[in-house]
Amino acid sequence: MSKITTELLLERAVPRSTRLRKIETLNLSKLQLKTGDLDPRLFSRLRHLQKLDLSDNLLDKFPNSLSLPDLRVLNCNNNKLEDVTALKQFPLLEELTYENNVYLTLNDDYKVMFLLQNLRLLNGKDITKLANHVRRVNSRKLTSKVTAHWEKFFRDQLPEKYTAEQVKSIRKKFLKSVQTNVVYGPSSLSEFTRWRVKMIAEEFLAYSLGLELNTDPEPEEKMDESEEESTESPREAAEEVGQVGVFSSYMNNVTVTPSKRKRNHSKTGSGNKRSKTQANTEEEEAEDVSAEPLHFLQCHSKGNSREDFKTQLWSCVFEPLLDCGARKDPIVSSSRTVATCGGESVCLIDCETGTVLKKYKVATEEFFSVAWTTLTMVISDCRKKSHNILAAAGRRGIVKLIHVAADFCYGEIKAHKKPIATVCFSPTQETHLFTASYDKRIALWDIGIPDCDYNFKASQLLVLEALSIPLRIALVPTCPDQYLLAGCEGGCFAWNIKLDKEQKSRPFEAIFQFPDEDGGMTTAHRVDGLAFLNDDVVVSKSSKPGCICVWSWSRSFDAKGKGCQRTVSVVVLAELEWSTTDMSYLTLSTCPAKDYVFCGDENGSVWMYNLSSYTTAWSSAKGKRSDKKIPPAQILKWPELRANGEQLSEVLINNVVSDPTFTYLVVLTSVNITAIWKKS
Predict the structure, then answer these.
(1) H-type helices in 495-576, by residue range?
(2) In what residue span(s) does the Leucine-rich repeat and WD repeat-containing protein 1 LRR domain sit (predicted)?
(3) What is the DSSP secondary-structure string of 64-98?
(4) Pick from 199, 431, 446, 666: CA 20 to 30 A from residue 612's CA?
(5) CATH code matching the domain that covers 6-209, chosen among 3.80.10.10, 3.40.1390.10, 1.10.3720.10, 1.10.3380.30
(6) 132: which strand partners?
(7) What pLDDT digit, counting tens, does each position of 331-362 carry?
(8) What is the three-class DSSP state of 411?
(9) Upper half-sphere CA count for residue 127 (Cβ side, 13 Å)
(10) Are 568 and 512 in contact (CB under 8 A)?
(11) 643-662, pLDDT tens digit by residue?
């Protein structure tokens, strides 16, 4: 029987706690604990644990799945640890001590410095500078040597057309040879060097051979440049290969192919067994948006594994059009380049061809959100030019700033100490970025404009205090510099964000009441979907199951005059019929130009609502609420996809986004598949 029980954890919490999920500091020292006593199922309930003391025990290693996503400080002094690589499961770790573990050496110190990107203190010493050297300079030198070894001794051994068996053979020979012959640094670090060389060599083979073996008929633009995660010039960064941040056009061999790819003409109610039957007249009036699946991509796999059907994909956004920037569809004037994120990577995809144009990877990150802005930057000869910049953020609480055209991650902002749920740029202030975090705060940043050497200065302008975790944020279209709306774990809130106010930390100005399933009104509910359909109409979910709420911002917010932290009842315009699932975080989006709303469900289907026949009536001052729930114009059913001969099942649609002209529809799933549909 394990020595660790729920009662023990609650008792050893500092201070004592009544619930595991509330524990932030835990002392498990001097309990004679062995590795088998650390039960992953029990530890997975310590979701907010930040400090853990395991000193003076009998641990020889760490289990690989302790699931402590927020762990910052770990004490393992006086144990019997033999290996440290399992510590990579704690990517937010900042302080680590493991003194008096006789089997650990200097090589292990270097391994944790490489694996833990946030680590500042190791055994009480500040290792920031040394760790940066290990992660960057050391990696650059080793990567250069590994690449040279391949080019000199192995490249010509591979025939132009080769079999999987030949690749397997040459891989085995190359890994053995490169670990034996690539030498760098003092002999005391030879074990660390061999460990890193093997890692770099495997990544090199995955990118180079994986790309050449790709059976996808669409060509890809090969990019091998890597991104140093600092404010260096692109030329310096391009010399870095195998670093933590990598841009690449490499995409896994996608073994997922649709067994049925015929045109989807599903009508209302036919796409989901939970859908209620609608009136015949409504079905006749609903527009049939003939949509055809173009591509199913598996480009966010962890470690580039073709077996990864577990990575969750969360956010996607189309690149803004530039005169010489994003690819334009030849028929419609719209960008067809979309940024997607999930797991450890951000991808740029050409929707028409299905080509993964670029890929940015941070091995210790899980990206939750991406957003575009267009900056007017000074280039050579003091000339100014507009460039698209992509911001990406996630579990580490850090915002990465990527100059896509230059294939360069030029900087980062350490915005929060907890994960960032979502980010968005101001439509009027090109450098203003909002970050919404699990620390229950929404911060406004001025990211600055980088100079020709990519030097920049970011500053925090405002902090909005929330009562619960903000999940979705939206700036009010008619006054984007004055009001921000947020859907949170505990309700829907509005803040005054006007910068002429002196107060830099602000409480919410209004909390909104919504109809609940019992016919009353409630403020206490999770709002995991939020978007504006036009200047006034807001679409949100989920105050009650089976529907999406459509309401008026102006009539709701102005109803009771001014005041701080007031409760406001929303003026409901309509309810959209949706799945009755209680599954959370299946978010929605809108296409304002076409008056469309999109939302995925728990069965892999995409619900599409055409509200163009309602918006005119809603815009009038006396616009009446639609009495009946509005059915979807169409439900796109998830096609039968097979991976390794088996059909993919239990597909959740986490997000659905169209381009501004509703030419392409990008669908992000819970099974590491990005699906791209095109309107016929």
Answers:
(1) 553-557
(2) 7-200
(3) S----TT--EEE--SS-----GGGGG-TT--EEE-
(4) 666
(5) 3.80.10.10
(6) none
(7) 555 688 999 999 999 999 999 989 999 999 99
(8) strand
(9) 23
(10) yes
(11) 777 777 789 999 999 999 99
